[in-house]
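#onboarding

Welcome to the new folks! Below is a worked example of what a typical request in this channel looks like: someone posts a single protein sequence, and someone else replies with the predicted structure as tokens. Don't worry about understanding the tokens yet, we'll cover that in week two.

Example request:
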Amino acid sequence: MYIYKHNLVGSSVEYIWSKKNKKPIEELDNIVIHYTAGANAVSSAKYLAADNTPVSAHLVIARDGSIFQIVDFNTQAWHAGKSKYRKTEGLNAFSIGIELENYGLLKEKDDKYYTWFGKRVPEKQVVELINIQTGFPAFWQTYTYLQLKTLREVCQKLLSCYPIRRIVGHSEISLTGKIDPGPAFPLNDFSELIYR
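Example response:
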């Protein structure tokens, strides 16, 4: 896998282009990690690329490690929303947004776990961790080894090509209470890539 003309190239990369994103990134220095909370990676990528949706991202990484690129790395995607990190506001202009296929926060009923849209999640994919918004334990879908391995490779490629200074979760920059990528995501492991 490598980056050529602001695109990922590799056997595991497919392209579902967003035509609505045209504005160039002002100064690329952040990677922002999200979860999709959608049905699957393909449907999430198509939704993010659709002309009539107010959101997009640069990449979606599926649970099997496959990748969908939606926006060139030198073009703003609409993933950060109302956002601020330290003194910088509006992080769409300064960041690459990567969505990970993951249901995120789950609902528990009768010792079974469900997505917000009612799909049952196997117990082996569920972990109980603190919800940062409430301070109470909650249930979350785990990330897969292949997904995290792919994300690590992607981040390393991006770090070698662009002057990125931070890898952050959406929850760290959101001004509207977003909680992704959630506590099941090992954010510290990825933030440390900056210093290697």
